[in-house]
Amino acid sequence: MKFKIYRYDGQKEDYDIYEVPHKEGQTVLDALFHIQENMDDSLSFRYSCRGAVCGSCAMLIDKVPRLACRTQTKRVKEQKSELEHYKALDEGEGLSEEYILVEPLPHLDVKKDLIVDMEKFFENYEKIEPYMKSDEEPEKEHLMEPKKVSELEDYTNCILCAACFGSCPVNGENEDYIGPAALAKLYRFHIDSREKEGEDRLKLADHEDGWWDCDFHTNCRKVCPKGVPPNFGIGKARQELEEKKDDED
User: Fold this and answer.
1) Which tens digit of pLDDT belongs to each residue from 9-39?
2) pLDDT for 140-167, tens place per residue?
3) Which of 116, 147, 167 is a domain's end point?
4) pTM above 0.90, yes or no
5) Sheet of 13-19, strand order
6) What CA–CA distance (Å, rounded) separates 190 from 17?
7) Which residue range is the domain that position 109 belongs to?
8) Total domain count for the chain?
9) What are the b/e assignments for 15-32, b being 16+ CB within 10 Å?
């Protein structure tokens, strides 16, 4: 099985092709390890848990942002992309049935090979103040309705892999757009009954680079390895803000 992999050493961009023996259950991350350990120890990529929990190994695999640790090589060609097309997909090498194309996540600066600089992603994440704000230490547990817990879990499942950030056409056009992951997390705190600033939380992104810049391409939800629906949260937040403004008028 052949892999065509993006290479960058800080100055020069290129692509290298490697042929890796196929094994049952092999993932793209397994193949990258084989290349690094047996063929080219200069190949650089990021990983940690190898169990689709940490989000470290997100990269562009055949023009779709995915976790390398959970993407089986034999299924890459079977899983046809349903993403709405965006500019980053036209860059770099083209797709081919002869190899699996592996590239770094779009919309983030490349540090080396498949490793991207996550600083911009986390700067946007910090803007929404991603932590619980409560008045005091609770004396007993907070009781929540099962329906509310279920809705909350839709957003708490985010592992901050930035796959949604790399798949979002708006992030490719507006570098100031906060992005799907940050907005989904912001909505998560807004709907949490334990949060003392729940109603005011939405204001943190009530500007042109926040809730209102989303064009609802829904790529974010399609690529999320945990099924988080940022587009739903963004839509509901916008509706609430509009209703509140109508009431004030």
Assistant:
1) 989 999 999 999 999 999 999 999 999 999 9
2) 787 888 888 889 999 999 999 999 999 9
3) 116
4) yes
5) 13-19, 2-8, 100-103, 58-61, 64-67
6) 47
7) 2-116
8) 2
9) eeebebeeeeebbbbbbb
